[in-house]
Amino acid sequence: MKIIIESYNPAWKTAFEKEQALLLNAIKEPGLTIEHIGSTSVEGLGAKPIIDIMIGLKDFQTANTHLSAIENLGYVYLSKYEDEMPYRRFFFKEENGVRTHHIHMVALGTEFWDRHLQFRDHLRTHAHDRERYHALKMELAGNEWEHMNDYADAKTGFIRAIEQKTMS
Hints:
It holds the Pfam family GrpB. By secondary structure, the chain is α+β, with helices and mostly antiparallel strands.
């Protein structure tokens, strides 16, 4: 599998805002928070053109009550990841067989929630690390991958190092 990294596209922000509005309308939950995460949320950073969305719930016990509302927006719910990540619900959307969106639904204030926001915010405000991350992604994109998760795993060391910076 070949990974394609595109130059930053300001339309990614607009695409997120459109989905955010749809999700806010579909999920009736007090205190619901929806964030744009991942590389498409960082101005100036190249990325796979998949909009990563994180939905934060005050009470994660309500997560399963929202599955059909999200599926009604064209998302596919993947329960298979719950064995290793029971604190997250994962969805994806495709157009013409190509992934365009991912949703990670978690509880607000959890380690997963905080880690993703801190990493995004760090890259937004630290150009040197943003450029290093982009260079790593471009280098890794030159490889052939059996699974998309293998590419993601190859970035983990860099991501964990940044997370350590943001926690100190």
